[in-house]
């Protein structure tokens, strides 16, 4: 593999919308302009929509069945595993749900996975269940053991697993017995570091799902003499 990415295959869980995991995917596309890239393609949904990562035009899209749902992760991983292996010397997968960890290698190629930790449905399932329709919650709850088992098998497939945080690294060691080195994701400190000036309000930005715990945040601000802006 060369320094510009020739001989590298970058694999993402999806390349339709832009979030924290996709920021890492985008950074890798920028850092390795000669690398090949592949990801599943999903239609936009109310929870997942927005711009695609810059460089997404380079990504070979694999059609996925239906909208993104953690419940269907084994199907998505199976679709990724069906993609024919390339001649890449190194496969670098960027994953949360485990989908891209199912990418196959050929010969002596090495597979390195960079994980942002387990999906909420596997480790904090009560929050994911709260976003499901009440009639579906018993079904989703019943499938959780099988989903966790599938995820455990997927994160053991790569030759090396890297975590994006100490929390994720501890999770992999505690739940799966896997040692994962921590490499923090890229942050534009020149943009995200606040300037030294007076603040007029607090800002919270995230998808409005139960796992983001906006209920706790808003309850806390009820006791503070500070305005909160939620985007």
Describe the structure.
The protein is of the alpha/beta class. 32% of the residues lie in helices and 17% in strands. The protein has a 7-stranded parallel β-sheet with strand order 3-2-1-4-5-6-7, with helices on both faces. The N and C termini lie far apart (42 Å). The relative contact order is 0.12.
Strand content: 15-25%
Q: Segments where pLDDT lies below 50 for 5+ residues? A: none
The number of E-state strands comes to 9
3D shape:
globular
Mean pLDDT: 86
Quaternary organization: single chain
The biggest beta sheet reads:
7 strands, parallel
Structural class: alpha/beta
SSE succession: EHEEHEEHHHEHEHEHE
Strand order of the largest sheet: 3-2-1-4-5-6-7
Count of helical regions: 8
Give the termini distance in whole angstroms.
Answer: 42 Å
Rg calc: 19 Å
* Helical fraction: 25-40%
SSE layout and pairing:
Layout: E1 8-12, H1 20-31, E2 36-41, E3 59-63, H2 73-82, E4 90-95, E5 110-115, H3 120-123, H4 125-130, H5 137-155, E6 160-163, H6 166-176, E7 181-182, H7 189-192, E8 202-204, H8 214-221, E9 228-230
Parallel strand pairs: 1-2, 1-4, 2-3, 4-5, 5-6, 6-7, 8-9
Task: Please provide a brief summary of the model.
It contains eight helices and nine strands. The protein has 231 residues and is an alpha/beta fold.
Question: Which tags fit this structure?
Answer:
17% strand; seven-stranded parallel beta sheet; 32% helix; alpha/beta; 231 residues
């Amino acid at each position: 593999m060369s320094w510009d990415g020739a001989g590298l295959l970058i694999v993402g869980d999806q390349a339709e919308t832009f979030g924290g995991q996709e920021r890492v995917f985008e950074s890798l596309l920028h850092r390795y302009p000669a690398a090949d890239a592949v990801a599943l393609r999903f239609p936009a949904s109310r929870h997942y929509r927005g711009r695609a990562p810059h460089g997404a035009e380079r990504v070979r899209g694999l059609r996925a069945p239906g909208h993104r749902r953690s419940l269907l992760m084994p199907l998505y991983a199976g679709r990724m595993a069906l993609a024919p292996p390339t001649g890449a010397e190194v496969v670098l997968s960027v994953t949360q749900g485990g989908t891209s960890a199912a990418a196959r290698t050929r010969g002596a190629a090495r597979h390195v996975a960079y994980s942002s930790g387990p999906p909420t449905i596997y480790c904090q399932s009560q929050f994911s269940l709260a976003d499901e329709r009440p009639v579906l919650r018993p079904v989703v709850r019943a499938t959780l053991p099988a989903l966790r088992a599938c995820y455990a098998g997927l994160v053991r497939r790569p030759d090396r697993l890297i975590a994006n945080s100490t929390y994720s690294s501890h999770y992999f060691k505690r739940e799966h017995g896997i040692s994962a080195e921590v490499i923090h994701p890229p942050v534009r400190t020149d943009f995200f570091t606040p300037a030294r000036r007076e603040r007029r309000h607090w800002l919270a930005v995230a998808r409005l799902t139960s796992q983001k715990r906006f209920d706790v945040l808003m309850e806390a601000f009820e006791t503070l003499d500070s305005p909160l802006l939620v985007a």
